Protein 1
Amino acid sequence: MKPMYRLPSAARQLVQSFTGTIRLSLILFLALALASWGFILVDANSGFPDLFMAETWSSAAGFLGKLAGVGEEGTPAFLQGERWMETGILASKTLAMSILAIVFAGTGALLTFLPAARNVAMGELSPHRRATPGWVLLHYFLRGTFILTRGVPELVWAMLIIIFLSPGILPGAVALGLHNYGILGKLSAEVVEDTDPRPAPSQRACGAGGLQVMGYGIIPQVLPQFITYLLYRWEVVIRTTIVVGFVSAGGLGMDFRLSMSFFHYSDIALLLAWYLLLVIGIDMLCAGLRKLIRE
Amino acid sequence: MARPRATFLEGRRLVSLALLAALVWSIWQVQWDQPIIHGGGIGAAADLFRALVTPELSPSFLATVLKASWHTVAYAFGGITLAVGAGFSLGVIASGVLARSSTGRWSMIVGTRGLLALMRAIHELVWAWLFVVAIGLSPMAAILALAIPYSGILGRIYSEILQDVPEEPLSALRTAGASEWQVLLYGRLPIALPDMLSYTFYRLECAIRAAAVMSFVGVAGLGFQIQISLDDLRFSEVWTLLFALVGLILLIDLWSTWVRRSLVR
């Protein structure tokens, strides 16, 4: 048993098992990674050399200490019950923002994912069982909205929306909703495209119309997966609400930004504590809901 | 025999009602006493949308866009390469496949899983802000901030994929006298690699978007340029930058979809 001398051959075998597209992509990935690191390290201000300087790490340790309330005048924020209550209200606003966002995204996706699926718009399951210009146009339009809303990050949506919506949790929820609408729409349309096509012809043979085929053949196959995606996105949304709050001025994000600017370190620690409580709470809730769906 | 009738507040219905109540409470949380669109908001929105048809296309600005795009790509790759390395190491430990005794395995799984959960609980931009304060404003702060939550996600997924490898080929290796390390290297990894690659490529798309946003804290990239143009109300430039960002993400998305399709085959 001398494994080590066989390692190179094992690695070579592994590489050789990838052919064509995959090998090309791996080479491209490595090339881009190397070029990126080269570019980053050549930059004199990359901050990379700083990582090997003692000052950097003592300042980082100092920051952690300040978060924990070291050297702060008066009682640190996270030891005052009153401050917990005040920031708790912000946390509840953040929670409300995430719920509104996921409802916006879910409703939007539910209304559009069927025509966005290729097989519903212009294939096997379409009303005329062939491509008609109206449906094809609708299909590509919806796919386009998915790409646009998904491609623009939540924070950038928030920066655009805050130009005309009043600050608060609503613009944040709209921004998060738009981005997640694109993601949920794309994912659920792909689920429809991957559904089993066999029930449809037999349902039609029994006299079912287009809507009935959808309602009894497609939706039941898709819905559990859709809810799973919705819960998964909610977990992501609650993590992102604080970031969107930086600009939309709703919930924990705004106070986080202000505390950062005013160097109120123990406040930052308190806000992070609420943030982690929300994230962990939602993760556990979603795990429970997923279990309920599977039963 | 008749099925026992479900009571009104049976499990799922109760959950649905609770979720509905949560929605009503959330709507109530919105400040409805202030106008939804603030004063001058309509005019600003009109300006924003008017600029959509006249994106800024002057060569000098396009050069800026190209440079910002490259910064975003470079930082995304910097972050994801670190995340693949750290995520893989942590994922192997968190899968518990290297432990022989069951207590050893469980302490490994629970400990590393907790660490991975903490890493991904905090959004990359929050990490970025913390890093900027802790080690100073530099591309490295953004790259590390990206790498931490992505290591958390990749580590968890890698560990699950490694655990889900079918047992039969592995026991064949063990019967032949292979150690757990050898089982990992010659059994689990070759079987798990396509799934791991597929997920990594999916995350690459997310990393590009995250790297663009990362510049919100002040690191060069598309997000930084968007912020500058928005602050100066130069909406034509904003649209050019947004098109560049969406185009870039679309490109990576097509690439990763292509890779994943070929991996499934």
Note: The first helix of chain B runs from residue 11 to 29.
Protein 2
Amino acid sequence: MIRAKDVRKQYGNKVALANINLNIPSGSIYGLLGPNGAGKTSFIRIMNQITAPDSGVVLFDNEPLKPADIGRIGYLPEERGLYKKMKVGEQVLYLAKLKGLSSSEAKSRAKEWFVRLEMEDFWEKKVEDLSKGMAQKVQFVTTVLHKPALLIFDEPFTGFDPINTNLIKNEIKRLNQEGATVIFSTHRMESVEEICDHIGLINNGKVMVEGLLLDIRKHYMNGTYAFTTKEQQTFSGMDVLHRDLQHTGHTATIKSEAYPSALIQKLAKENQLLGFEEVLPRVSDIFIDIVNNGPKPLNS
Amino acid sequence: MKSPILLIIQREFITRVRKKTFLLMTLLAPLLLAAVMIVPGLLASMPEDDKSIIVLDEPSILVPEEGTSQFSLEYLNPNEFDLETGKTFLRESDKDALLYIPSGNGWDPDFIKNNILLFGKEDIGIDLQRFVERQLEEKINQQKLIRQGVDPEVVSQTKTKVTIKSFTMGEEGNEETSATPLKMGLGYIAGILIYFFIFFYAVQVMRGVIEEKTSRIVEVIISSVRPRQLMMGKILGIGLVGVVQFLIWVILSGTIYAVVSTFIYPEIFAQQVPAGPGSPDLSTVDQTNLFSMLNSINFPVVLSGFVFYFFGGYFLYSALFAALGSAIDQEADSQQFMLPVTAPMIIAITTAMNVIQDPNGPLAFWMSMIPLTSPISMMIRLPFGVPIWQIGLSALILVGTFFGVVALAGKIYRVGILMYGKKVTWKELYKWLKY
């Protein structure tokens, strides 16, 4: 869907994007991750043609971005808001028309969304009379109303209350199933593990790692194993990270350089094993690892 | 599907025109303006406060002058009263003031003129003081003349008032009646109108930009339209509001003035209208004269100049104000940047009188070439007649500067609207031009 080739953006002396290459596959839910100031928003603004790259090119469906693509993108910026004095209905229609929808088309779609998200009675209200949660729903509707093929959410859940967060997560999943490609940009990496299938990690304007989330997590597995045993375990001479008691039995995670088969044999001698798995590292742990040690070479 | 810039213009226009404040301003302003025109006439026709003055006139200069209907004079006998008893008399009487004229040493007018005293129970009004001074000056002058052996009658007969009819030599050799006061008024009023229009509506552009920034909607919008489209749409939309409001004002003010002057207070306005041809001695401006005066002004040029500079000035300044608005987070921060931007306009207004006095002098010329002052300064000059090449050059500079400023302002705007929480300096703005 989106392919960035050697994209560079510089503000004064500050390099926001240092010749990055990214590939966001069609139909994916893609997590664009990185700490604040990594360059995520700079890249998003380039995709939205708010700014242009100093060099490099962004391909949208294999063609360089062109003004007409704006109508195929739905963007929820991190700094978002609505005209406070304007009525909700008018505002939704105005923003939809700016995206190229006709008046009647915009109206019928908006009404549909307002019913779906149970906000029919907002239509005649002014934005300043809405609660924060209500305004967030309106903002979401304006982002998706023109049925964009690409949805970009910049820090979507900051400021959303838990109920709306859930509601919107589900709506996003539904839109993705209907064919939309979704990009999430966030510095809160734990929040995307459950929803994203692809990720790209950016730091200091450079791409650290990119690909299928599962592949990346597998690639960064580091010999951490979780066990469940019937009785309290004994791990002679092993590095225990965590112990717990759950309804399935006693659990523990340990770290070991040994091969899994050898490890099982060793542990089975001392304990009655109920379960064993190698633990996938968390994205945030991978990120910290990469920042400290650099990306892990593919052949390791 | 409409072009985005039209949608933006439409939104800017409709949301503003629908506001209650717009309705209020649009209806109240002509009433205020009409009041400004009518109230002085009404006030002038109101009876004034009468004052009675007691006079202790030791040298008998004023005697037997009785004063006017407004200021009546009554005399105390100098043989029975002196200054102190005169004051006591004033305190106990219902009179308003005591005028004391000392005789001094042997009736010396130079001594008398410096030692006249006026006591009032309340503050002595400026009208009363002027009246007394005028009366005394006249009497003392007469006395001086008599002492020099000159008959005051002769002097008053030799007094002459000169009235000049001035003409402007036209290029084809025809002579036009010079209409300097009319041209002054016309130029000044037109200049002031442009000044207010620019100030009022360009600041609204800035406010609109700040509003979009503080409500954080701006990034949503510019993901659909180009920042420059948003800026131009805003400028055009608000300009349109201004034009509509201005036209309503002109029509309403004219109607109110016409109604009031023909039906409600015709007698007041009759006094202000120049006297008819039947009484040519009463006024230097009779009706045929007025007609030829009006003829001496090139109205097509003045009118089209007004429209051009009205819009040219507005567009130029609103682009500057839009850039300004984009650079700041809230209106309170705008002060430090406002002054340098508005200074040229203020200079144009404060030098208006100098431009009027010498409409073809170097100051007037340069002020009407510099694009930040020309909308006002050139407008002031136009009724006096300006060489066509100067108008053309000034217009060209204004239009050229407008495009330059829009290009620069657009750059600042593009960066500024996405900058939050940053105290902006001039240096920073300069850097944005290069992003």
Note: Chain A touches chain B through 30 residues (CB under 8 Å).
